[in-house]
Amino acid sequence: MTEKTQITRLKLTDFRNYDQAGLSLSGRHVVLVGENGAGKTNFMEAISLLSPGRGLRRAVLSDVPRIGAPGGFAIFAAVDGMAGDVEIGTGTETADDGNPVRRLRINGTTARSVDELTDHLRVLWLTPAMDGLFTGASADRRRFLDRLVLSLDPAHGRRANDFERAMRSRNKLLSEGRFDPTWLSGIEQQMASLGIAMAAARREMIGLLAGLIESDRQTSAFPSASLALTGFLDDHADAPAFELEELYLSQLSQTRYRDAAAGRTLDGPHRADLVVRHLEKDMEAGRCSTGEQKALLIGLVLAHARLVATMTGFAPILLLDEIAAHLDENRRAALFDRIDALGGQAFMTGTDRGMFEALGDRAQIVLVEDGHLAT
Ligand SMILES: Nc1ncnc2c1ncn2[C@@H]1O[C@H](COP(=O)(O)OP(=O)(O)OP(=O)(O)O)[C@@H](O)[C@H]1O
């Protein structure tokens, strides 16, 4: 049995094009309707910042406060969350060095880490910026996959950051021609254990998702995806972790001169790619039509949402920006039914209220106009 998490109140201060805006929510799905540039995606971005990371735009903190605002931005949310009712406040303050720093308060107490947010709610999203996922750079697909992993395993982000830091140290030593074996071995040891842990977490997520997609295949209105990882220790995917660690470690120590010449580390989890195929068509996702790719992506995000719900016992908050625009009426109705069946609260945006008719009273309509909200 999946329980619901829901945002019941949201207040934005100096956030993007919002000066002061507040909203009480009924717990139903929320449809934000407004003209281009009204502030719909900004609203979604604010909710995405109730999860660890940089939100759905991957924004730099200094871009987020309203232009002309005297200080930072603030987001306040009252949430009926995974650990009961909670009040979350997040935003930026200016540090002593003049740079903005993110602050997070949970029930009035300063949180030690933004990871604490995942004790209360999980937020997943799909935005038009992700439309080119299957044809674009592998870094985007890696990031997408890592976000999927993060939603179930908050430690994944820390591992990835620590790996990056260790790799940067190795690159620096190599670029300076400092081939100190003791120093390099220590760093490479760290890279090997973190890198293999990252790869294992990604593989586990792919396995879980594959199982869920398979069980949904008959009933889903969306195409099914098969997922695979390539680009890192491909020939040894089934080897136990300790063997992989040894293998990667020896790879790193043998490639020092090559990597020094290249100016970067050429092998590692930072080079992995997520390969997605359209199962029914047996075709690589990148070669499918635009509409097919969008439907695949929607199917994937919904499957992931169901996985999060199953694993945590709580349906995640879903942010679906401009999701209805490219779907025909039947697909749209099927999508709304799938979203509703997840049992959580979904936020959707559109320029035309009519597109959401099939949701009926399952959704609350919020009108967005030039940084103002009205229900
Ligand atoms: N830091 C900021 N301060 C003030 N305004 C900003 C800031 N960042 C973005 N904006 C403005 O916010 C406005 C609304 O952007 P948003 O992306 O939310 O629009 P939208 O309603 O989703 O539009 P569309 O339907 O075109 O996607 C834009 O005009 C943008 O220029």
Automatic annotation (TrEMBL):
One of its GO terms (molecular function) is ATP binding. It is found in: Cytoplasm. It holds the Pfam family SMC_N. One of its GO terms (cellular component) is cytoplasm. The keyword Nucleotidyltransferase does not apply. Residues 26-369 form the AAA+ ATPase domain. SUPFAM superfamilies: P-loop containing nucleoside triphosphate hydrolases. It comes from the Bacteria. ATP binds at residues 34-41. InterPro entries: AAA+_ATPase, DNA-binding_RecF, DNA-binding_RecF_CS, P-loop_NTPase, RecF/RecN/SMC_N, RecF_2. PROSITE patterns: RECF_1 (PS00617), RECF_2 (PS00618). This is DNA replication and repair protein RecF. The lineage of its organism: Bacteria, Pseudomonadati, Pseudomonadota, Alphaproteobacteria, Hyphomicrobiales.
